[in-house]
Automatic annotation (TrEMBL), chain A:
Residues 120-138 have a biased composition (Low complexity). The keyword Transmembrane helix applies. Residues 95-151 are annotated as: Disordered. It comes from Amycolatopsis minnesotensis. Keywords: Membrane, Transmembrane, Transmembrane helix. This is Uncharacterized protein. It comes from the Bacteria. The chain crosses the membrane at residues 46-67. The lineage of its organism: Bacteria, Bacillati, Actinomycetota, Actinomycetes, Pseudonocardiales.
UniProtKB/TrEMBL annotation, chain B:
NCBIfam families: SigE-fam_strep, sigma70-ECF. InterPro entries: RNA_pol_sigma-70-like (IPR039425), RNA_pol_sigma-70_dom (IPR014284), RNA_pol_sigma-E_actinobac (IPR014325), RNA_pol_sigma70_r2 (IPR007627), RNA_pol_sigma70_r4_t2 (IPR013249), RNA_pol_sigma_r2 (IPR013325), RNA_pol_sigma_r3/r4-like (IPR013324), Tscrpt_reg_LuxR_C (IPR000792). PANTHER family: ECF RNA POLYMERASE SIGMA FACTOR SIGM (PTHR43133:SF50), RNA POLYMERASE ECF-TYPE SIGMA FACTO (PTHR43133). This is SigE family RNA polymerase sigma factor.
Length: 279, 170
């Protein structure tokens, strides 16, 4: 005789081992994904080609064809079961692939592109910039050996969170051929990706995310730092619901540090003023 | 096709079925699973060289990205709540292979992070420490999320059992 807890454990393992969980990719699914990856890459590197629709294109999902595992809806569900499913079912029960989804996953589609009427002025209440790329040496503890440059509390060098695309262009940090975002777009830096992987700019909110590669915070925290070092440098760091350490760095701006196996593996500076999709 | 995309293509080919299945467990339905897998893989593919350089285990990295993307997506859209408000007719057209599974239905009611913890524990068989690392949360958070999740599953299952007049096991 098993305890209720053991029973639940067993049930969960059984459920997750169930073959009905299988979702069969159809031929061509890989190609759709490869195309998508290529598209993102092309648009990122050649932000030139008037690729304003960039993020929109990259985030419109749903093209992935698949079929569910063996259909077994043999028995029609009883009214009671339907009622219960309806009551407890938060997300829609799976629709057959042909049926258009009732509620398109808005998260994957871009937010409606706002009329370009209001050019984003630099965010109100922007703090004076503190972290200059050259100011990396003020680390209390040993700086990260591999850090390259500093991702300051409000931006990377002259590139500040909240800055409009036009202002960002005048810093010269973006490629000279970069085109203004429609909705949101991600840009590489002209200097290469040693310090910063990319910068996301929204047409309305301006620069709202900067992804670090080698760059560290002025406190020396970056990709490769240990979780201990993060906690030591930022004792008040809190975990957000995406599971990242969040450190307020400036008004409306936070460092976000994702930790994997005890080491920071993603580090970015993010504006709370977000109108771009997750990720 | 550039070299790293050839490599990525092979990776996708090999891992797609498993990832879709994982996505199904994570999101609760095959459509969201496909959506999640595609979105995450496209992003990762676009930076495949970097991803490989940064992580020794791309598959684990993809799964972790999926779990995190699912959690943050839900947070931003609250989509599931919206869908629950749809007229009842939608349930009739819908086919859920698990509609006879009270446990599956109970899982739907869990907040996404609790569900992710359950999936990582029972689907992937990860330890608390590993789950904490995968989701970038503390071990304490994993513990508390897991116990909250199990508690509400237990309650739901008990009430189902009572409704059904009890079951003969246990």
């Amino acid at each position: 005789m098993s305890t209720p807890d053991e029973e639940l454990d067993t049930e969960l393992r059984r459920l997750f081992g169930d073959e009905r969980l299988d979702v069969r990719p159809q031929a061509g699914a890989e190609h759709a994904i490869l195309d998508g990856a290529r598209r993102i890459r092309r648009r990122r590197s050649a932000v030139t080609a008037g690729a304003g629709a960039l993020t929109a294109a990259m985030l419109v999902g749903g093209g992935l064809v698949f079929a569910t595992a063996p259909s077994q809806n043999a028995a029609a569900p009883s009214a009671e079961e339907l009622a219960r499913a309806q009551a407890s079912s938060a997300s829609s029960v799976a629709l057959p692939p042909q049926v258009p989804s009732v509620a398109p996953p808005s998260s994957v589609n871009m937010p409606p592109v706002p009329p370009p009427a209001t050019p984003p002025s630099t965010a109100a209440g922007k703090p004076p910039a503190k972290g200059k790329p050259s100011a990396g040496a003020t680390t209390p503890s040993k700086p990260q050996a591999r850090s390259t440059g500093v991702l300051g509390p409000s931006g990377y060098g002259a590139l500040k969170i909240g800055m409009s695309f036009d202002d960002a262009m005048t810093t010269g940090l973006l490629g000279a051929t970069a085109k203004a975002p429609v909705g949101c777009a991600t840009y590489d830096l002209a200097e290469g990706a040693a310090a910063v992987d990319s910068v996301r700019i929204s047409a309305t909110a301006g620069v709202n995310q900067i992804w670090a590669t080698g760059a560290a915070t002025p406190e020396g925290i970056g990709v490769g730092s240990t979780e201990e070092a993060v906690k030591k440098a930022y004792p008040s760091a809190a975990m957000n619901s995406s599971g990242q350490y969040v450190v307020p760095s400036a008004p409306g701006v936070t460092y976000e540090l994702a930790v994997h196996s005890g080491t920071v593996n993603q580090f970015h500076l993010t504006s709370e003023n977000q109108d771009c999709s997750a990720g | 096709m550039s070299g790293d995309l050839v490599d990525f293509s092979e990776f996708v080919q090999a891992s797609l079925p498993g990832l879709l299945r994982y996505g199904h467990a994570l999101t609760g339905n095959p459509h969201d699973a496909a959506d999640l897998v595609q979105t995450v893989l496209e992003k990762i593919g676009s930076r495949w060289t970097q991803v490989q350089r940064k992580t020794g285990d791309p598959l684990a990295y993809v799964r972790r990205s999926m779990a995190n993307a699912h959690i943050s997506r839900w947070r931003r859209t609250k989509r599931e709540n919206l869908v629950a408000d749809l007229p009842e007719t939608s349930a009739v057209a819908a086919v859920d292979p698990f509609e006879h599974e009270p446990l599956w239905q109970a899982l739907r009611d869990l907040p996404p992070r609790q569900r992710a913890v359950i999936v990582l524990r029972y689907y992937e068989g990860l330890s608390e420490v590993e789950i904490a690392a995968a989701l970038g949360v503390s071990q304490g958070t994993v513990k508390s999320q897991a116990s909250k999740a199990l508690a509400s599953l237990r309650v739901k299952m008990t009430s189902v059992r009572t409704d059904a007049g009890g079951r003969d096991d246990g």
